[in-house]
């Protein structure tokens, strides 16, 4: 997942508590740099993987208090400080890095559980790190956070089909493609009734998952709770925009405008407290 699409990274928002901006910013730039190593420029896959292996070594050094190498000193000096000051779970940072490593060969995903396993590393650590910074560690909150983050990741996939598929990056599970009558070895390139039904099915899956975790907004204090309300409503609004296009997202990318932001803000004012079960 491109870090610029981490909707639950409140780096620039005034809603982010000032005391948490340094650790959140350090985590953001750690992930953003790893994303660039995996996905930007024209380096061959072998070079990308070698760079990411070196990057992992620097993370280990940051976690153990060793000085960073000059190449990424600007990333790991502040990250090491935040790991120390906030006892950041390094395993979650390792998971984020592993997701970028997985992206390099542009793998395919056989079914929804396989795609969710990718989300477990690419998206869920972000929410868990933010909960850690707020001192929330109970299992129910973590489960709800995972549901929100995985849903955001899935929504981003279905929003970006027109961008990802031409680049050879496919997150459409093979099992879903075949269930809708498509050959998983030949990816669709244009919108058809079959692809519209496929996208509608996948969007419904993401919406169910998002709603199952949405009541977490009431657990986070103050600004963080309002930030999360906007994150949840933003994801749900993207799904509405895809539906308004009749799920023709293979050729068009829906975006949010000022009117959407106003609607999301209004919806954020009232969100139900009931908790529903998480759907895989």
From TrEMBL:
EC number(s) per entry: 2.5.1.21
Sorted UniProt keywords: Transferase
Enzyme class name: transferase
CDD domains assigned: Trans_IPPS_HH
TM region(s), chain numbering: none
GO MF term set: squalene synthase [NAD(P)H] activity
Cited InterPro entries: HSQ_synthase_HpnC (IPR017827), Isoprenoid_synthase_dom_sf (IPR008949), Squ/phyt_synthse (IPR002060), Trans_IPPS_bact-type (IPR044843), Trans_IPPS_HH (IPR033904)
Keyword set includes Lipid biosynthesis: no
Keyword Transferase: yes
NCBIfam families xref list: HpnC (TIGR03464)
Name of this protein: Squalene synthase HpnC
């Amino acid at each position: 997942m491109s870090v610029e699409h981490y909707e639950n990274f409140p780096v620039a928002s005034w809603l982010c508590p000032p005391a948490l901006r340094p650790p959140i910013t350090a985590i953001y730039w750690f992930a953003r740099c790893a994303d660039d190593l995996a996905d930007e420029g024209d380096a061959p896959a072998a070079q990308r993987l070698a760079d990411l292996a070196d990057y992992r070594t620097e993370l280990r050094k940051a976690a153990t208090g060793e000085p960073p190498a000059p190449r990424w000193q600007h990333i790991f000096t502040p990250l090491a400080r935040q790991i120390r000051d906030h006892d950041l779970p390094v395993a979650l940072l390792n998971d984020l890095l592993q997701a970028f490593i997985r992206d390099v060969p542009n793998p395919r995903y056989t079914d929804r559980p396989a795609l969710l396993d990718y989300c477990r590393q690419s998206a869920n650590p972000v929410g868990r790190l933010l909960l850690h910074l707020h001192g929330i560690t109970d299992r129910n909150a973590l489960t709800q956070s995972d549901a929100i983050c995985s849903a955001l990741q899935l929504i981003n996939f279905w929003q970006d089909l027109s961008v990802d598929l031409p680049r050879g990056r496919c997150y459409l599970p093979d099992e879903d493609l075949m269930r809708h009558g498509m050959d998983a070895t030949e990816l669709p390139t244009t919108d058809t009734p079959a692809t519209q039904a496929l996208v509608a099915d996948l969007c419904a899956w993401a919406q169910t998952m998002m709603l199952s975790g949405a009541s977490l907004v009431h657990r986070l204090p103050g600004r963080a709770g309002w930030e999360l309300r906007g994150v949840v409503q933003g994801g749900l609004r993207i799904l509405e925009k895809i539906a308004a296009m009749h799920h023709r997202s293979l050729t068009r990318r829906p975006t949010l405008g000022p009117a959407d932001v106003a609607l999301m803000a209004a919806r954020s004012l009232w969100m139900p407290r009931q908790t529903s079960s998480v759907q895989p």
